[in-house]
Write a structure and sequence with these properties.
CATH class: Alpha Beta
Number of strands: 10
Distance between the termini: 45 Å
CATH topology: TIM Barrel
Number of helices: 12
Structural class: alpha/beta
Order of helices and strands: HEHHEHHEEEHEHEHEHEHEHH
Largest sheet: 8 strands, parallel, barrel
Number of domains: 1
CATH architecture: Alpha-Beta Barrel
Oligomer: single chain
Shape: globular
Bound molecules: 2-O-methyl-1,6-di-O-phosphono-D-mannitol
Radius of gyration: 19 Å
Strand content: 5-15%
Length: 338
């Protein structure tokens, strides 16, 4: 596939103020979400929950792509339609999480590296045959005393670039996700500094490994104080610091930046994105969302595993889709929350 085709897919995902639903929770991560609502983590419950999300009428107006877990890519609706085909019919592009999660990084206490490169070329070919047009790989960078090390940032950036190159070879758009965690007590400036170092290294590796920057999407954290920092920042301060770090590090060729929510509340994640789009015009990249928890939390709670709650859960999910669609246009206001 040509670079032009990769660019078209990347642009289509974020066109018209649309974003991405990250529904790629691995079996162990969805277990944590289900524990919170008292639902057993069975294959059928995972399937039923994903069907609820993907059949929400009106969501596709705001959702240009959905990231699936490998199991979900092979699943169908109760009526027997493959989820990837269902999404494609709605004009939503199916994607696939291809990393295999994090492992402790050797000789780097407290730090992790994302694995999954072995056999990735072959896996990408089979995911493509099942309809996946984009992929996602998440690297995790923690902030603590003496952490992150350059070693940790470097090996994770190297793996992200190897993954991205393999995706482009297979005609699949890579979402490059270096997540600087918002756990801890660090302030906004420290998050800024670590995010800047991380993005500089990621783009150096992407360049080194000949990845076409106009055929990727970047999925970063926002620049935000740690959850335990006593000095929390205003919505405007987060928006301005986040845009500033991208101006320093992200080449203009990148078509879109789709944020993760990282443990922010649904409303904070929406408000921050909207403030960026309202306060900063004529940026080279589209600023949009690729939220997991910040799109799903209310819907999960409303569903709580009961068929009789499906309509209420879909209303909750659609509402968050609409709010984040408005955030992409920079027109979200808290008065729009019900
Ligand atoms: C939805 O969660 C994704 C998968 O996580 P695991 O690999 O741990 O199961 C995750 O990669 C997600 O896409 C991003 O972290 C963004 O999700 P949030 O909830 O931070 O918006």
């Amino acid at each position: 596939m040509s670079n032009q085709s990769l660019n078209q897919i990347a642009r289509a995902i974020v066109a018209n103020h649309r974003g991405i639903l990250a529904a790629d929770e691995s079996t162990s991560t969805i277990a944590k979400r289900f524990v919170g609502i008292g639902v057993e983590n069975t294959e059928e419950n995972r399937r039923a929950y994903r069907e609820l999300l993907f059949t929400t009428e009106g969501a596709s107006k705001h959702i240009g792509g959905v990231i699936l877990f490998e199991e979900t890519l092979g699943q169908t609706t109760k009526a027997g339609k493959r989820f990837a085909a269902l999404l494609a019919e709605q004009g939503t592009i199916p994607g696939i999480k291809v990393d295999k999660g994090t492992k402790a990084l050797t000789f780097a206490p407290g730090e992790v590296v994302t694995e999954g490169l072995d056999g990735l070329r072959e896996r990408l070919a089979s995911y493509g045959a099942l309809g996946a047009q984009f992929a996602k790989w998440r690297a995790v960078i923690d902030i603590a005393s003496g952490v992150p090390t350059e070693h940790c940032i470097g090996v994770n950036a190297h793996a992200l670039a190897r993954y991205a190159a393999l995706c482009q070879e297979a005609g699949i758009v890579p979402i490059v996700e270096p997540e600087v965690l918002m756990d801890g007590e660090h302030d906004l400036d420290r998050c800024y500094e670590v995010t800047r170092r991380t993005l500089m290294r990621v783009f150096a590796e992407l360049d080194q490994q000949r990845v076409a920057l106009d055929g990727i999407l970047l999925k970063p954290n926002m620049v935000i104080p740690g959850k335990k920092c006593p000095d929390q920042a205003s919505v405007e301060a987060v928006a301005d610091a986040t845009v500033r770090v991208f101006k320093e590090t992200v080449p203009a060729a990148v078509p879109g930046i789709v944020f993760l929510s990282g443990g922010q509340s649904e409303i904070d994640a929406t408000a921050h994105l909207s403030a960026m789009n309202a306060r900063h015009k004529n940026l080279p990249w589209t600023l949009s969302f690729s939220y997991g928890r910040a799109l799903q939390q209310s819907a999960l709670t409303a569903w709580s595993g009961k068929d009789s709650n499906v309509a209420a859960a879909q209303r909750a999910y659609l509402h968050r889709c609409q709010m984040n669609g408005a955030a992409c246009a920079g027109t979200y206001a808290s008065a729009m929350e019900r």
